[in-house]
Design goal:
The complex is a heterodimer of chains A (291) and B (329). Chain A is of the alpha/beta class and 291 residues long. Chain A has 14 helices and 8 strands. Chain B has 329 residues and is α+β, with helices and mostly antiparallel strands. Chain B has a 5-stranded mixed beta sheet with strand order 2-1-5-3-4. A two-stranded antiparallel ribbon of chain B has the order 6-7. The radius of gyration of chain B is 24 Å and the shape is globular. The interface between A and B is large, with 79 and 79 residues.
Chain lengths: 291, 329
């Protein structure tokens, strides 16, 4: 099963452990990943607002790179996924815009005809690997691990992209956690916002918002959290010390990237999945799953 | 599972759609309604009612039944009953809805909107919102003389403003916004006031100086882009993508100091092809980014930051592409 793979900026910098884990897990799952070396940033939230032309060009360019390889595109970041889906939709809905973008890409010898399928790793597990096959590959069911799924915003909203009347109804992560043997827990923060997108100029919003979510997960019995988005991970894990200081309370909440949780159930060692590179200790998980 | 199905997991299971919601209850069955009742002092209690279901029953019908048969002193607002006046918004099972447009659920807890003071029961004080909107001066000041009717305006020019003009001022988005939920922590005006402002600030006839002055008071770059507002908007306005983002674009050109973070990200991507978080922080925060040395050391220890990469910009194919399309230094 071949995919063009788009890790995004975060998985190549602050969350490099996600990229490493993803490659290990892909090998175990039989996913053959082709990295698009000249792919740029998708523009986060900032570029799409202040420079729509630049935003559309960079995103469609990434889709064109995948199309040139003749491969579907797999992502591991919510915001990148939504940016690519939005750019693809804008391209498909507006022939004049499509011509304009292709005119620009022609300078690089690239062309997009609108055929690239964009899929987050979470969706690849369901749609390409399949639930039954994934279940059969679980060699170390994570029995006893109470896990709080943290979706993040851009994999379940806006409604016009994903179709949820109420995004809290999304169950993709909880169902996956069950397949891996975990006990998913319910809590108020599941589909709430981590506040990452304003953190570069003001961390306080992210600290306050995410503090509530981790606290709610902990009070409902979560031993760990899991997220499909490295941006959410940066706040949940990377800011946890600041969150604890703000709340005056110890949280000690290990936060896993989605491929890391999958990898543990597939029998990969915590060290191979780079659980040691997190800010909040993941030792408790390693102990829990030790044979 | 076919393409696109995984991203919708839970929609069918939770009857996440209006048709499915309407089919959940049969005529005559009782609905369990729990209403948060109380005054402005914060003291509130939840009161339970059993309401007989009638076909096509809306939340408003349930409230009317309760007021007529069980609690004549129940305070709630409504006027048109047809999704026009925007007065009947409440929270039903933790979600902002228009009482006049939302199908009842078999069990529902109804609360007043958040982020506005409660007057009594389900009635909130819209005053703070009205004052915020007034402060933003949401009107048009022409910089060019009026050319007479009809004015040469195209659909494309009015695309974003016309979306904002669909707003019925119901405050659902204001209640759902997590940043507004943090109170005075930021100067963010909130989605509803921004939509009100967008009606005129995104109109090409408006004087750019006037628009810039209004935008400078919005704190718009504190929007976290969570799309909670879009999710609850009964008028289906794409609030983030068609109102807030175009307003941010106006702010970036008219009041660039507000858009420091966005402009810095654009510059970092243009220079490197990708975001190096440390380079972005240094550009946005300047020396302030270096204050927290202990944290930087912690990050360094886990190899979360890489100063060599940050200070040595490599010429990569991604950087070349980004420079080409974003214009580099």
């Amino acid at each position: 099963m071949k995919f063009a793979y788009y890790p995004g900026c975060s998985a190549r910098s602050t969350c490099a452990e996600l990229n490493e884990a993803m490659h290990e897990v892909a090998a175990r799952l039989g996913l053959d990943l082709t990295q698009l070396d000249s792919a740029t940033c998708t523009g986060a939230r900032e570029l799409r607002a202040i420079d729509p032309a630049g935003f559309h060009t960079l995103n469609v360019r990434i889709l064109a790179l995948a199309e040139r390889e003749g491969l579907p595109l797999m992502t591991v970041c919510n915001t990148c996924t939504l940016n690519l889906l939005d750019a693809h939709a804008a391209f498909s809905d507006d022939p004049a815009l499509a011509d304009e973008i292709n005119g620009r890409l022609a300078g690089e010898g690239l062309h997009y005809s609108g055929r690239t399928r964009i899929s987050h790793f979470l969706w690849v597990l369901y749609e390409d690997i399949g639930v039954e096959r994934l279940r059969s590959m679980v060699v170390r069911p994570l029995n006893g691990l109470s896990v709080a799924a943290f979706y993040g915003c851009h994999i379940t909203r806006p409604p016009m992209r994903y179709g949820f009347v109420d995004s809290r109804n999304n169950v993709a992560l909880e169902r996956l956690a069950e397949i891996l043997g975990c006990r998913p827990i319910d809590y108020s923060g599941r589909t709430e916002c981590c506040g990452f997108h304003t953190a570069a100029h003001d961390e306080r919003v992210a600290i306050k918002l995410t503090g509530q979510h981790i606290k709610s997960a902990k009070h409902n019995g979560a031993a760990a959290m899991v997220t499909p988005c490295p941006l959410c991970h940066t706040v949940l894990d990377g800011f946890q010390r600041e969150i604890e200081r703000d709340m005056g309370e110890t949280l000690d909440m290990p936060v896993l990237h989605l491929p890391q949780l999958v990898g543990l159930a597939l029998g990969l060692a915590p060290s191979v999945l780079r659980l040691d590179r997190h800010m909040a200790s993941t030792d408790a998980i390693a102990t829990l799953i030790a044979p | 599972m076919t393409t696109g199905e995984a991203r919708r997991l839970g929609q069918a299971e939770h009857a996440d759609g209006l048709a499915a919601r309407n089919q959940r209850i049969a005529a005559g069955e009782p609905i369990a309604v729990r209403i948060r009742r109380g005054g402005p002092d914060g003291a509130a209690e939840l009161q339970d009612f059993a309401v007989p279901y009638q076909k096509w029953m809306r939340v408003l019908d349930a409230l009317n039944w309760i007021a007529e048969n069980r609690a004549s002193d129940l305070a709630y607002r409504w006027f048109c009953g047809s999704k026009m006046c925007g007065t009947c918004a409440v929270r039903m099972n933790g979600r902002e809805v228009l009482a006049c447009w939302e199908a009842v659920e078999p069990a529902m807890t109804i609360e007043p909107l958040r982020n506005l003071p409660v007057i009594r029961d389900l009635v909130v004080d819209r005053g703070p919102f009205d004052r915020k909107v007034a402060e933003l001066e949401p009107w048009i000041e022409r910089s060019e003389p009026y050319t007479g009717f009809p004015e040469p305006l195209s659909h494309k020019q009015m695309k974003h403003a016309s979306k904002a003009l669909d707003c019925i001022g119901c405050m659902c988005c204001y209640s759902a916004c997590p940043v507004i939920g943090l109170g005075d922590l930021t100067d963010f005006a909130g989605p509803a006031p921004l939509v009100q402002l967008g009606q005129t600030a995104l109109d090409p006839r408006n004087d750019p100086g006037k628009v810039g002055r209004s935008l400078a008071r919005t704190g718009i770059f504190n929007c976290v882009s969570c799309y909670k507002c879009e999710e609850v908007c009964p008028a289906a306005i794409p609030i983030v993508s068609q109102v807030i983002e175009p307003l941010k674009a106006r702010a970036a050109s008219l009041v660039p100091a507000m858009a420091r973070h966005s402009l810095a990200l654009r510059a970092v991507v243009a220079e490197r092809g990708r975001v190096d978080p440390s380079a972005l922080l240094l550009r946005v925060q300047g020396l302030r980014a270096l204050v927290n040395v202990r944290r930087a050391l912690r990050l360094l220890l886990r190899r979360k930051i890489d100063p060599i990469k940050t200070f040595l910009t490599r010429r990569t194919p991604a950087a070349a592409a980004a420079r080409r399309w974003l214009g580099g230094p």
